[in-house]
Amino acid sequence: MVTTPSKEDYMEAIWSLIQDKGYARTVDVADRLGVNSASVSKMIQRLDGDGLLVYERYRGLNLTDEGYKLGQQLSIRHHTLEKFFQHLGMNQPDEVYETVEGIEHYVNANVYRRIDSLVNYIEQHPDWWQHFILASDHE
């Protein structure tokens, strides 16, 4: 299955809505992504055709097992990248969000694994990271 940044954004939003509210409706997806309902309807048809979700009129969206797994992976990736930039000293939520949104679809799997490993190491060794940050600030 080929994913695009747009499909990934929709899948992440739908997965997140289901986690937060227990359901996702097209209007919720439109609000979350800041797009119109017609755009959501078109993408839902594509995602349904890809076997990632099932749309039931008047009942909302349900993710297939594959869709759930993809949505979860995308959400984890997003959260990991947010933590990475926060560790680098980005403290403004809007700045972190915009930065992650700008790059998350273009970080290949190998780079993502390295970032994930670094974030895990930083969280397991906060003193090391503080020393590193202080040392790099003085260079």
The separation of the N and C termini measures 46 Å
Mean pLDDT: 93
Largest sheet: 2 strands, antiparallel
- According to CATH, the homologous superfamily of the largest domain is Winged helix-like DNA-binding domain superfamily/Winged helix DNA-binding domain
Give the strand order, joined by hyphens, for the main sheet. 1-2
Protein structure class = mainly alpha
- The level 1 CATH classification of the largest domain is Mainly Alpha
Tally the beta strands. 2
- Radius of gyration, Cα only, in angstroms? 18 Å
Spell the H/E element sequence.
HHHEEHHHH
The number of distinct structural domains comes to: 2
| C-alpha geometry | elongated
> Based on the structure given, which CATH architecture of the largest domain is correct?
Orthogonal Bundle
What is the count of DSSP helices, taking H or I runs of 4+ residues? 7
Strand proportion, as a percent range, falls in 5-15%
Helix content: over 70%
Task: Give a nutshell description of this structure.
With about 140 residues, this protein is mainly alpha-helical. About 70% of the residues lie in helices and about 5% in strands.
Describe this structure in words.
With 139 residues, the chain is mostly helical. It folds into two domains: 5-69, Winged helix-like DNA-binding domain superfamily/Winged helix DNA-binding domain (Arc Repressor Mutant, subunit A, Orthogonal Bundle); 77-137, Orthogonal Bundle (Diphtheria Toxin Repressor, domain 2), CATH 1.10.60. The chain has helices at 5-21, 26-33, 37-49, 65-87, 93-103, 109-124, 126-137, and strands at 53-56, 60-63. The protein has a two-stranded antiparallel ribbon with strand order 1-2. A hairpin with a 3-residue loop joins β1 (53-56) and β2. α6 packs across α7. The protein starts with a helix and ends with a helix.
